[in-house]
Write a structure and sequence with these properties.
22-stranded antiparallel beta barrel; five-stranded mixed sheet; 6 helices
Length: 682
């Protein structure tokens, strides 16, 4: 029933006609138009790229305790064991986090341009270890076609997080500003405080400081039982400065630094809790920080919009095994940690990534063709600390990319190319095998679009990418050698349509719809092993699906937001046998119904229904329907409350007892949770 509904609704998208788009987005590349809707989420129009933006208003409205919980409302996105920042992982269209690693390198996560959270650490999630209240926007690019400016081997998509700016609080004029937010959630007695202090001493100079502390005890599931290992305490920091100077403010220099820390005592090593075996308990200190220095030169010249970004990301996880806590016993704690089987439990992990990206956006014409070209080069150096379970080393990469959006009348043709080379070097001697490995690849795609000029557009794309060997694959085993000698390859095709218009059904209403079909094939696989055979990799993986996003608003303030995904995936062993793809996204539809009274009050009811669900072991799960209620109130009529916002929410209002898709059967989703937040701007 859900599949038929989704496919039928997508067909309606392709038959609609109306008026032009309403708001132009300023990002480079083929990102199209961002339509400002009457609902909670703005939608993309006129682009072949499947793109969803969660803005600051929605970030605050959802009161999510992790970034993963914030963006799992995006079509095709699955949250894997995401009740804590340490264990949360993001899976997009069946790729990304899985039940063994927090990442499979097929999605990219970026904070202010710094690449973070791409480490493959056994049973530890590292992708989104940060706090949602540090950000003004979270953007999800689904699929491969929009990834060539960000990395290689990206199959699921890209998650881009943008931190807040001082001008967000000062209104862009000299002076002081800021805000204070307090949040409380009943389930787990969760508490958060976030303080922003902004200062613009003069035009062209701005400074921002943020401190956020989030504290939560163990959560309770819908059946009243405690969800183990769901407590956490994470202080986070953000410092940001921006200077604008030169004629017509053509130069700008921006520095940002963010950090999140967690010091967990006596917690299970397996953060996902997806294995029946006990790997014991540990004390774990997780420290993640990102720094970015960006220079931009944008003179009054269409050919020059130059950006140079230098970034540094440091992820450090120090682990101390608690003697005797594992079911595997090898004598003393020293013997346990020295074992090749259990030594990973005792390993400290540290990854440091330095990246320099220089790009330029140029607008020009060649005859009748208008070009919007983004071209750039990138240098990356990633270092991995030696660990008892695997050697350390260095991953050096050089890349060049170009994305050229060419418009001829109502037709848009966008070719994209990326060339990347890598050199892996082990910091330890690998017996009987090379100490370094070199690979390179050329990848790219083509996007086509046609705008009928009446609010209706159609689009399609084809993309090919390769995943180069990883620093985490270094080792002397046969499995490591196989993976270091190959590159994973994938191709994705997409086809869709979008519509946006006003006065569609009634005077003063607005409607935006977007639907797209996708099909992805992954082969020469080095990431996933065949069923029941850890020494052999899968032959290939095929996924396909349909995604739909829609928003409808009326002049009265009534609005409807819809997001959904229906898909399926198949994995093939080398012997030709097939099975359901172990990481396939579930079929899900999400509908929000609400009403706004000007900017003073917003009430909404959200229903999320998911089917075709499985746990981390592949066992089928029953359908789940979760209800969420939200309210935002801005008491503008009371003078001493001016600048205040009060938010109420009830998550899982009916206290449903269920397990999240791809989560451990023993790790249930949180039960009913009452939330309240107070924000005061000054």
């Amino acid at each position: 029933m859900l599949t038929s509904l989704m496919r039928g609704t997508t067909a309606l998208v392709c038959l609609s006609l109306a008026m032009p788009a309403m708001a132009q987005d300023s990002d480079p590349g083929f990102l199209g138009t961002l339509v400002l809707t009457s609902g909670k989420r703005d939608l993309s129009f006129g682009t072949a790229l499947s793109r969803t933006v969660v803005d600051e208003e929605e970030i605050q409205d959802r009161q999510a305790s992790t970034v993963a919980q914030l963006i799992d409302s995006v079509p095709g996105v699955t949250l894997v064991n995401g009740t804590t920042p340490q264990g949360s992982g993001i899976n997009i269209r069946g790729f990304g986090a899985n039940t063994t690693y927090g990442s499979d390198q097929k999605i990219a996560v970026m904070i202010d341009g710094a690449t973070v959270g791409s480490e493959e650490i056994y049973r530890i999630g590292t992708q989104l270890f940060t706090d949602p209240l540090l950000y003004r926007q979270a953007e999800v690019l689904r699929g491969t076609i929009g990834s060539f400016a960000y990395g290689s081997g990206i199959v699921g998509g890209v998650v881009k997080l943008e931190t807040k700016d001082a001008s967000d609080f000062t209104g862009g004029v000299p002076g002081f500003g800021g805000s204070q937010t307090l949040e409380y959630s009943s389930n787990g007695d969760g508490f958060a405080t976030s303080t922003n202090l902004a200062w613009m001493p003069a035009e062209g100079a701005e400074f921002l400081l943020n401190y956020t502390l989030r504290d939560q005890d163990d959560l309770t599931a819908g059946d009243g039982k405690t969800i183990g290992n769901s407590a956490f305490r994470t202080p986070s920091y953000l410092a940001k400065a921006k200077f604008t100077f030169g004629a017509h403010d053509s130069h700008s220099l921006t520095f940002s630094h963010s950090r999140t820390v967690a010091d967990d005592k006596n917690v299970p090593y397996d953060q996902f809790q997806t294995s029946a075996a006990s790997f014991g308990s540990v004390d774990r200190l997780t420290d993640t920080e990102q720094s970015t220095l960006e220079y931009r030169y944008n003179p009054a010249n269409d050919l020059i919009d130059l950006t140079a970004t230098l970034s540094y990301a440091d992820q450090q996880i120090d682990t101390t095994y608690i003697d005797g806590s594992s079911e595997y016993q090898f004598g003393s704690a020293e013997d346990f940690c020295a074992s090749s089987f259990t030594g990973v439990v005792c390993a400290d992990n540290r990854y440091q990534t330095k990246k320099l990206t220089i790009s330029n956006r140029a607008l020009f014409a060649t005859g009748m063709v208008q070009h919007d070209m983004l071209a750039g080069v990138e240098a990356i150096r990633k270092e991995r600390l030696n660990a008892s379970s695997a050697p350390g080393g260095t991953d050096r990469r050089l890349a060049a990319f170009v994305v050229d959006e060419m418009t001829i009348g109502q037709v848009t043709v966008t070719p994209a190319l990326r060339y990347e080379s890598s050199r892996l070097e082990s910091s330890e001697t690998l017996v009987g095998v090379p100490q370094n490995y070199e690979k390179d690849a050329l990848m790219g795609g083509l996007a086509l679009g046609y705008d009928f000029g009446n609010g209706f557009s159609i689009f399609g794309s084809a993309a090919y990418t390769e995943g180069l060997p990883l620093i985490d694959d270094l080792g002397a085993s046969a499995t490591s050698q196989r993976r270091l000698d190959m590159t994973e390859k994938s191709k994705t095709f997409e086809l869709g349509a979008a519509y946006t218009g006003m006065d569609v059904f009634a005077r003063g209403d607005n409607l935006t719809l977007r639907g797209n079909l996708y099909k992805t094939e992954l082969w020469d696989i080095t990431t996933y092993t065949a069923s029941g055979d850890t020494s052999t990799d899968l032959d290939r993986v095929e996924t396909k699906g349909v995604e739909l996003e829609a928003s409808y608003g009326m002049a009265s303030g009534l609005y409807f937001d819809l997001a959904g995904h229906v898909g399926e995936g198949t994995e093939f062993d080398p012997d030709g046998t097939s099975a359901v793809w172990r990481n396939s996204a579930s079929d899900r539809v999400q509908l929000a119904i609400g009403r706004k009274w000007d900017d003073r009050l917003d009430l909404s009811w959200e229903v999320v229904h998911a089917t075709d669900r499985r746990d981390s072991a592949g066992a089928d799960l029953s359908d789940a329907t979760v209800h969420n209620l939200r309210a935002t109130w801005r008491p503008a009529d009371v003078k001493w409350l001016e600048g205040s916002e009060v938010r109420f929410g009830i998550e899982n209002a009916l206290d449903l007892d269920y397990v999240g898709h791809l989560s451990s059967a023993t790790r249930k989703a949180p039960g009913r949770t009452f939330k309240v937040a107070l924000t005061k701007s000054f």
